[in-house]
Amino acid sequence: MHALTLPAPSHYDEMLLPSGAIRPHYQPFANWLHAQTPEALAKKRAEADLLFHKVGITFAVYGDEAGAERLIPFDTVPRIVPASEWQMLEAGLRQRVSALNRFLWDIYHDHEIIKAGLVPAEQVFANAQYQPAMQGLDLPHGIYAHITGVDLIRHADGGYYVLEDNLRVPSGVSYMLENRKMMMRLFPELFAQYPVAPVAHYPTLLLNTLRHASVADSPTVVVLTPGPFNSAYFEHAFLAQQMGVELVEGQDLFVKDDYLYMRTTVGPRRVDVIYRRIDDAFLDPLAFRADSMLGVPGLLSVYKQGNLILANAIGTGVADDKSIYPYVPEMIRFYLGEEPILHNVPTWQCRKPAELDHVLTHMAELVVKEVHGAGGYGMLVGPASTAAEVEDFRLRVRANPANYIAQPTLCLSSCPTFVESGIAPRHIDLRPFVLTGRETTMVAGGLTRVALKAGSLVVNSSQGGGTKDTWVLEA
Amino acid sequence: MLSRTASQLYWMSRYLERAENLVRMLDVTHSLSLLPQSRGALTELAAPLAVTGSLDAFHARHSRLDSEQLFNFMALDQDNPASVLSCLRFARENAHAVRGQITAEMWEAINASWLEAKEMPRRGIPSVSAFFDWVKERSHLFRGATYGTLQRNDAYCFIRLGTFIERADNTARLLDVKSQLIAPAQANLMPVDAPAESAPDFYAWSALLRSLSAFEAYHAAYRDSLDGRRVTELLILRPDVPRSLRACCDEIRAILPQIEAAEGALDAGRHVKQLAGKLAVQLEYGSVDEIMALGLHDWLTGFLTRSARLGEAIRAAYLEAN
């Protein structure tokens, strides 16, 4: 019925074994798929497009004048994660995020891990994301990263690896929630066959996490957005609405007598917790970028007096920097005395001469990234690049080696995906969201991003990636 | 509620109401321009431009005023900030900024309207009448979604406040322009309150009533032929005609106490409530004789000044507070 293209044998496919047989947890889905006509499925996909458009689940692409708002393509083949795999992932995520929070507390207090010689001092203190203003500041419960998004991939060996940690303002959780709503609407019959763990309670968990972050009795929580022109504005509005809190912009807030207030129709009202969706640099024009129109003058002084909680805290970027990433397994051993459950991708640090040599020699086989880059910008995928592009990047790395790391070209696992010719394997990753409050919580799921171009390994929505619903099966 | 949020909700509904009233006005202009007596009647065509203050902008872009140019400029021209399309865009932009405060149904209604509208200049429209009906339908849909789904809270109040402030303003302007078009023609022959016996007058008053969906109400209320005096009474003083000035001001006066207020003297809304109360009382106890004695145009000018003052007070008390 459907043209199902087989995956290349070089990587792991979520649904198909190399022989072309179906993996057991995908069998019910495969049976269901076999019974559908291509026309009926095409109709469902068109319906999904229309619904997403109407709901306005859009994102803005920077530097794209015409497409001020675009839909993220949604694929209707789910990514299915067996219960046993999720149990391992969840334990690994708890462990990793816990160590990262301990690391942040440490580098803004006694620097034990540096004194122990495990992380070089210059990697921390010379890092542009390190915020000296945070040194010695005690945050309630010692939590820095209340919300963490961890990007995972599955390699050819079938194992999961952490590609990067996102400790600043990780986005995408609204797509996780909306994708599930869409799949339940389009294909309710599939949910009768699969015990899919629910994700819809995420906003409740988030609100609890934010409330707990404050020591105030009945804290007022708000979501701070840069405004409707931000690429993730939909998500900011969505989360504020789902949590039942105000969505504020910098202009709605002001500082008076060491407290932060919002302007309301009944006068000023105090704000205790900000779930901020703007970067450190824009938070307070008096303390950081003076040209920021997005922040609130004086916010940092309120924060330093302990009269305000920011989630995430200021200065978390130093821990998700690509130059710090190679040290996370050491952090887990150092702070928790445990062996890491989730593995890092092997990483060459170009700032080390021996590793730089290796990178320069093998550049055409490697993925080379700027240590401060994000969103798929400023990176080279060696095998997918022309000789000229590789040469150009080689010059850039040589000019400023400390600004780059390199990793082997990973075989991201693939998942069957609707494409023009039918259903073909496309590469995917996974971003679960971890909440740290009174306890560490997460919903069983995450955002699965898919690279829609054949062979492409870049899943970022800004680079033509799409999303899938992620089904974690209950045991 | 955040002052900015209140402001965006209020302007969202004002712009949507304005779009609807604009097509009502264009509709009446369009039907009158089809009458043999009105062919080439420039004053008739210029009315929508005069009401929206767009005469200069139109002449800067177009050398000749005809119904097609008028329609293109006032309906589909995205560069004209007073056009229907621009109003729909502003409404949608405001809705986008407060989408967390409105229901999914409301957002989908307003967003889908804009997505469809913005393609119209390129794709073309089946007919002007179909366009007028479409805009009214989309406005009804949004209002229905608001009525049927939104929690009765401050957001609901500010949305409705925007609707009635805008509607009162638009009805007054429409009545002013149309009565001036009809009155001078009659001035030499008969008093303005004489029955509209000539066919052009009949069509002019009935088109005005139809554009405000008040034609049926007129007949139910008076069971008599059309005349300017009764039309004036209906559109200004009747409390049971949803687009009359009286009905709009009654709504405004009823909405204001429902908005959450600070205690006692701190209540910035007190001044607003006073102004709204005065405006409503004046209509409640006014008579058509007084209006005619003063002259309809002068009376309406006074009304527009007072309603603008009310709008200003709302802005100061709620929308740009602190």
From TrEMBL, chain A:
SUPFAM superfamilies linked: Glutathione synthetase ATP-binding domain-like
Source domain of life: Bacteria
Coiled coil ranges: none
One Pfam family in the UniProt entry: CP_ATPgrasp_2
Record domain Circularly permuted ATP-grasp type: where: 78-451
PANTHER family: BLR5612 PROTEIN, SLL1039 PROTEIN
Name of this chain's protein: Circularly permuted type 2 ATP-grasp protein
Organism: Chitinimonas viridis
TrEMBL record, chain B:
Stored Pfam families: Alpha-E
Top-level taxonomic group: Bacteria
Domain DUF403: 1-319
Leader peptide range in chain numbering: none
PANTHER family, alphabetized: BLR5612 PROTEIN, SLL1039 PROTEIN
Name of the protein this chain belongs to: DUF403 domain-containing protein
Source organism phylogeny: Bacteria, Pseudomonadati, Pseudomonadota, Betaproteobacteria, Neisseriales
